[in-house]
C-alpha cells in the first residue's frame, strides 16, 4: 500500500473517531477559585457579624463592601499570576531558542534522552530527532513542552482570568448575603443564609468534583464542611469577644 493509501485510511479513522476530552481546565480553575472564596468568605463575615448582634442592614453593607474588595483583590491576583506564567514562558522560549541556535547538538541529544525515557530505542527515535532538526519551529515547541513542561499561554489569558475570578467571586458572595436583603433581623437572615449557602456549597462542590474528575459527592460534602466550619468559627469568635 502506498503513502496515499495510508493517508486515506488514517484520515478516515480520524474522521470517525471522536474523543471527549475536557479542555476548559483554566476557566474551570478560575471559576472554582472565585466561587469557593466568594461563598465562604462573605458567609463567614456575615455569620461573625450576626454573632456580634449587628443590624441586618449593617451586615449587608459590610458584606457588599467585602465582596467588592474581594473581587478586585482576587481578580488582580489572578491577573498577576497569569501574567507571571506568560512572562516565564516567554523567557524560557527565548532561552531555548538561543540554545537551539548556539548548541544544536546538545539540544538534539536532549531530544534523544527525552524520547528514550518513553522506551524508544535509538533506531526508533533517530528519525524523529533528524526530522525535528529540520524544522526549528517544531523543535522549539517540542523542547518547551517535553523538556520544560510548559504550555503556550493563550493570548489575553491574564485579563480573562482576572474577570472570570472576579465575576465568580461576586456571584458566590451574593448568595450568603441575599437573605440580609429581605429579613429585618440578623438572626432570621443568618438562619436563612446558612441554609441557602450550605445548599449552594453542596451544589458547587458536586459540580467541582464532576468537572475536575474527583468524586462529586465527596467533593460536595468536603466543600460544604469547609464553609460550615469557617462560618461557625467566625460566629463563635464574634460571640466570645462581644462586649
Structure description:
The structure is a single chain. This protein has 9 helices and no strands. With 243 residues, it is an all-alpha fold. Helix 2 runs parallel beside helix 9, helix 3 (56-102) packs across helix 6 (136-147) and helix 3 (56-102) packs antiparallel against helix 7 (157-177). The model is unreliable at 2-11 and 17-23 (pLDDT under 50).
Largest sheet: none
Overall strand count: 0
Uncertain stretches of 5 or more adjacent residues? 2-11, 17-23
Computed Rg: 26 Å
Instruction: Give the SSE order as H and E letters.
Output: HHHHHHHHH
How big a fraction of the residues is strand?
Answer: under 5%
Class based on secondary structure composition and strand pairing: mainly alpha
The shape, in one word, is elongated
What integer is the average pLDDT? Answer: 80
Fraction in helix: over 70%
Number of helices: 9
Instruction: Report how far apart the termini are.
Output: 88 Å
Fold blueprint:
Blueprint: H1 3-15, H2 25-51, H3 56-102, H4 104-116, H5 122-133, H6 136-147, H7 157-177, H8 186-212, H9 216-241
Give me some keywords for this one.
single chain; 243 residues; mainly alpha; 9 helices; 81% helix; elongated; disordered N terminus
Amino acid at each position: 500500500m502506498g503513502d496515499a493509501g495510508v493517508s486515506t485510511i488514517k484520515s478516515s479513522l480520524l474522521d470517525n473517531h471522536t474523543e471527549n476530552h475536557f479542555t476548559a481546565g483554566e476557566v474551570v480553575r478560575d471559576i472554582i477559585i472565585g466561587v469557593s472564596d466568594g461563598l465562604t468568605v462573605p458567609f463567614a463575615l456575615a455569620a461573625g457579624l450576626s454573632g456580634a448582634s449587628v443590624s441586618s442592614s449593617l451586615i449587608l453593607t459590610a458584606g457588599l463592601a467585602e465582596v467588592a474588595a474581594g473581587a478586585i483583590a482576587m481578580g488582580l491576583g489572578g491577573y498577576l499570576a497569569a501574567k507571571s506564567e506568560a512572562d516565564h514562558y516567554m523567557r524560557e522560549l527565548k532561552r531555548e531558542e538561543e540554545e537551539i541556535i548556539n548548541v544544536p547538538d546538545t539540544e538534539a541529544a536532549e531530544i534523544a534522552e527525552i524520547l528514550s525515557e518513553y522506551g524508544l530505542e535509538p533506531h526508533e527515535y533517530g528519525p524523529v530527532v533528524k526530522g525535528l532538526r529540520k524544522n526549528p519551529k517544531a523543535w522549539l515547541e517540542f523542547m518547551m513542552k517535553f523538556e520544560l513542561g510548559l504550555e503556550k499561554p493563550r493570548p489575553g489569558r491574564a485579563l480573562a482570568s482576572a474577570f472570570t475570578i472576579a465575576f465568580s467571586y461576586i456571584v458566590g458572595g451574593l448568595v450568603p448575603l441575599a437573605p440580609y436583603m429581605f429579613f429585618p433581623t440578623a438572626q432570621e437572615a443568618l438562619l436563612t443564609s446558612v441554609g441557602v449557602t450550605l445548599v449552594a456549597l453542596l451544589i458547587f462542590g458536586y459540580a467541582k468534583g464532576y468537572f475536575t474528575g474527583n468524586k462529586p459527592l465527596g467533593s460536595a460534602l468536603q466543600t460544604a464542611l469547609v464553609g460550615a466550619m469557617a462560618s461557625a468559627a467566625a460566629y463563635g469568635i464574634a460571640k466570645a469577644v462581644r462586649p
